[in-house]
Amino acid sequence: MAVKRGVGRNNNGGVCGLRLPVILLLFFSVLAPLLFLTGRGIHLRDSTDQKDVTTGSQVLETITANMQDLEPWSLDNMRKHPLPSSWKVAGLETSDQNSAVLNEPKDTADATKNASQNKEGNVVKAGDHSPLVDTPVKQQRRRLREQRREKRANQLVQQTDEAIIKLENAAIERSKGVDSAVLGKYSIWRRDFENENSDTTVRLMRDQMIMARVYSSIAKTKNKLDLYQELLTRLKDSQRTLGEVTTDADLPHSAPDKIKAMGQVLSKSREELYDCKLVTMKLRAMLQSADEQVRSLKKQSTFLSQLAAKTVPNGIHCLSMRLTIGYYLLPLEKRKFPRSENLENPSLYHYALFSDNVLAASVVVNSTIRNAKEPEKHVFHLVTDKLNFGAMNMWFLLNPPGKATIHVENVDEFKWLNASYCPVLRQLESAAMKEYYFKADHPTTLSAGSSNLKYRNPKYLSMLNHLRFYLPQVYPKLNKILFLDDDIVVQKDLTGLWAVDLHGKVNGAVETCGESFHRFDKYLNFSNPKIARNFDPNACGWAYGMNMFDLKEWKKKDITGIYHKWQNMNEERTLWKLGTLPPGLITFYGLTHPLDKGWHVLGLGYNPSIDRADIDNAAVIHYNGNMKPWLEIAMTKYKPYWTKYIKYNHPYLRNCNLNE
Q1: How far apart are CA 352 and CA 485, in angstroms?
Q2: Cβ proximity of 77 and 66 under 8 Å
Q3: Cα separation of 255 and 424, whole Å?
Q4: Which of 235, 341, 427, 612 fits 212 for a cystine, CB–CB 3.0-4.6 Å?
Q5: Closest Cα to residue 545, out of 574, 586, 573, 580?
Q6: What backbone torsions phi and psi does residue 601 show, to the nearest 5 degrees?
């Protein structure tokens, strides 16, 4: 306490006298050694046991450098991987010696003691800087590790290659599904699909041309003839430059100059002629005119597509002519097919095929036989017209269907099928029907005739199309027969259809109705009381193309008589318009047994969005519609199912330029 009071009493002299010696004492005793050690680095030496102790940061650096190896950090790792540059060995005078020691272990007494207990058996003597010698066991382990790494790397490379191949194959398969008939010149490799705005310049030029037409019309009405001529000149230049180009990449190099020149004229026109109300009126008139043109082009497109569907391609016509000539050059004894005794054997599988298309008929027969389990039990009854009778015979004489039986007949030789017995034949020969089919209200333009072209479809005038209502008369000794259209492809064995129980019904067919379509009201005129009293408008429709007919039940229920009754009632075409499906729906009403949809998949001639799995799993696929597989307008993605049953290297096909 005396000391404190003394200090308190002598503030000027006593305190200052004591502070300076204390500060100096603290500096020399504590801070000076710390500064010395910090500047030099802390090196604790032991003359016999230790040399250097690395700092914490240096140890971390070494461990980090060796983290790429998944093995435990060890002396072996230090030898395999170069040590970081921060490692220094004290006691070496030259940098060469120091660098040489970097690949050697620290040879302290403690290291010697620990190494002697190491499970690897390595011994390090103090003061010895020679490299460690691995034991044979450790070398063998290292070799095994390296082999495992190499094996794993090879596996990864192989998996990568396999994955790339799978992706490439998948891309190729997807590219086969692109429908060129629908998409035209579409290609994912074209430059115009590199970005979303690939047609920006093209659209700009079109917009300029629209405004040029508007202003030219206004200029003419306001008697500004100089501006009118200038607009017409620029408009023609833009039209020549644009042509049929759809993407910027296809535009000529002069396009920017044309755009600039047009822009200047439009700017001038806007200053002199712009009137909001007048411009709006002109644009509205142009829109209405364009709408009329679109409707007209749609009608023309419909007309041309129907025309293409109804015509016979040159190659098929050539094939028919060449085969006909070859047939009639054959001796009579060589015109007969073998195994004619099978034609009336009811225990075999009989098919009815009515066609005037040789190539289409060959696909039906070939696909059926190729997928049949017992081809020798299948019998094909082909009926054609007199024009194609020789060609059909010649083709199957040259290309017999293996062990199956085939027979070709001419519908014109069925003497019982005459106008006195068949109402539709009598109607087709009448003057009123000829006028209805051939004149079709005398259309004066292409677009006007598009709606009437279906009336002039040749199949509606051919008895081949109506012969399906006379199956018991054509094949009186058969019990069951499978009716096939010529635009189908068989993909599975069909003998299971003969085992289907029709439950007393006459017709076995696949139904086609959905929630609101392909029902009776689509095909029949329910405004007529005869139709309305006898049929349900919501009754489900079914498809021709693959039908199993029980001919015994047919005869019992007099199906042909029912058909004749309704055909006579429709002489004025007030019950239905065209075709054989509407009278078929009427004739087999209540007498049709629905088959599983897997037997028959339809729509390959008009529907581009059929599920590929449904097609692949179907027993029969049907190209109903205008886009038949033998026409150029066929959908590309469906065509291979048909073409794979044609041998395009056949001499007759090559001579007629028929190819895939």
Answers
A1: 9
A2: yes
A3: 63
A4: 235
A5: 580
A6: -110, 125
Note the pLDDT tens digit of each residue in 488-544.
Answer: 999 999 999 999 999 999 999 999 886 556 788 888 999 999 999 999 998 999 989
Backbone phi, psi, residue 350, to 5°:
-105, 140
Contact status, residue 392 vs residue 337, Cβ threshold 8 Å: no
Phi, psi of 548 (to 5 degrees): -95, 120
Q: What is the 3-state secondary structure (H, E, C) of 190-223?
A: CHHHCCCCCCHHHHHHHHHHHHHHHHHHHHHHCC
With beta carbons less than 8 A apart as the criterion, state whether 600 and 622 touch: yes
Strands in 560-649 per DSSP E? 592-594, 600-601, 620-622
Could you tell me the strand order of the sheet in which 488-490 lies? 488-490, 620-622, 600-601
pTM over 0.85, yes/no: no
Q: Is the dihedral of CA 525, 528, 530, 535 positive or negative?
A: positive
Listed in sequence order, the residues at least 6 apart from 627 whose beta carbon sits closer than 8 Å to its beta carbon are 181, 309, 604, 605, 606, 633, 634, 635
| Whether the Cβ atoms of residue 653 and residue 316 lie closer than 8 Å to each other | no
Give me the residues paired with residue 353 across strands.
382, 484
How far apart (Å, rounded) are the C-alpha atoms in residues 570 and 334?
46
Pairing of strands 507-509, 480-484: unpaired
Burial of 223 (0-12, 13-18, 19+ CB in 10 A): exposed
CA atoms within 13 A on the CB side of 444: 0
- How far apart are the two ends of the chain, measured CA to CA in Å? 121
Strand intervals (E) in 506-571: 507-509, 546-550
Distance CA 92, CA 96 (A): 9
Phi, psi of 231 (to 5 degrees): -65, -40
Q: Please name the residues in contact with 552: beta carbons below 8 A apart, sequence gap of 6 or more.
A: 479
Q: What is the pLDDT of residue 129?
A: 45
| CA 144 to the chain's CA centroid | 49
- The secondary structure of residue 539, as a DSSP letter, is P
Helix or strand (DSSP H, E) at 276: helix 276-310
Spatial separation of the C-alpha atoms in residues 101 and 104, rounded to whole Å:
5
Using 50, 70 and 90 to split pLDDT, how confident is the model at 105? very low
193-201 long-range Cβ contacts below 8 angstroms, 24+ apart: 198/247, 198/248, 198/249, 199/246, 199/247, 199/248, 200/248, 201/248, 201/251, 201/255, 201/259
Q: How many residues does the chain have?
A: 660
What is the 8-class DSSP label of residue 132? Answer: P
| Residues near 567 by beta carbon (within 8 Å), at least 6 away in sequence | 423, 424, 427, 583
Residue with tokens 């078929």: 584
Q: 92 to each of 53, 62, 121, 489, how far by Cα in Å?
A: 15, 21, 28, 91
Helices (H) and strands (E) in the chain, counts: 30, 10
For 599, the enclosing helix (H) or strand (E) is: none
For range 204-218, the mean pLDDT: 90
The span from the CA of 283 to the CA of 290, in Å, is 10
